[in-house]
Amino acid sequence: MAQYKGAASEAGRALQLMKKRERQREHMEQMRQRIAEENIMKSNIDKKFSAHYDAVEAELKSSTVGLVTLNDMKAKQEALVKERERQLAKREQCKELQLKLERLRERALKQEQKRQISSLSFSLEEEEEEEEEEVEEVGGEEGTGSPPDDDPDKDEQPPKRRKLGKNPDVDTSFLPDRDREEEENRLREELRQEWEAKQEKIKNEEIEITFSYWDGSGHRRTVKMKKGNTIQQFLQKALEILRKDFSELRSAGVEQLMYIKEDLIIPHHHSFYDFIVTKARGKSGPLFNFDVHEDVRLLSDATVEKDESHAGKVVLRSWYEKNKHIFPASRWEPYDPEKKWDKYTIR
């Protein structure tokens, strides 16, 4: 066959056309063989009938010697025809039984191959039951000895689809399971709601915050807030308290105030809950304690962290800009959640 030279897509198309033509040629050859077989079968039918009547005629001649009456002749002929038909029926029945047994053997071989493939994850009890039913059907037909039907299509029933069940001994926990996934999602949702309810309860708890208005000297005050409140809400409430005593704060707004805790400038959007949950630390003490207490110990131990908290400072931003080069404003720096303070310092 000549080799095609050209683009790869055209070569693939030419190959497909060649395969299609080959399939058509095979189909035509099969049709030709089928027609030839049908013609042979038709010719064999005529031969069978002729052989049948020839055998009956020969038997009749051998059994009737001498002069017989017409009635005896007809009765003898009918008996011989019936006997011959009975013999042919038995012969055809034997052939049918042999074909069925061959089909059963082929089916058993196929089922054995399927069993070897699927024996690890599927049970084969249903297949065995189907085999037993087929064997019983063949045995019943052999016992009755009834003549076969003229229509061969009635003997061939369409094969039933076999239902394969899961083997209960195989571990299937790693396979996807809709019921198990729904149960896990439901449990996960319950835990999420329980956690959110607990956190909401913590945010609604009240704490007392000690702060000092710093204008070069400290003026200490206390206020009660919720843990979920932000620094901006705290400064708003502190400003309402401080306006009565400090005239420079009467025209000031919250955006002009700063909150300094443990030498860190805390942004307004953070909440007290954020520092409590993360156990945040500052330069000179913890950011999650908002009261004032000192570490009173008779013997100092370097391995134990000091437990002391200082009052947060509320400062005007204008005052900080003027005095940020002077202590203590020179120590202040913006709060950075990524920065860690391993040791506390006060100088």
TrEMBL record:
The lineage of its organism: Eukaryota, Metazoa, Chordata, Craniata, Vertebrata. Residues 205-345 form the FAM50A/XAP5 C-terminal domain. GO terms for biological process: chromatin organization. This is Protein FAM50A. The gene is FAM50A. GO terms for cellular component: nucleus. Residues 1-28, 115-185 are annotated as: Disordered. Residues 124-140 have a biased composition (Acidic residues). Residues 176-185 have a biased composition (Basic and acidic residues).
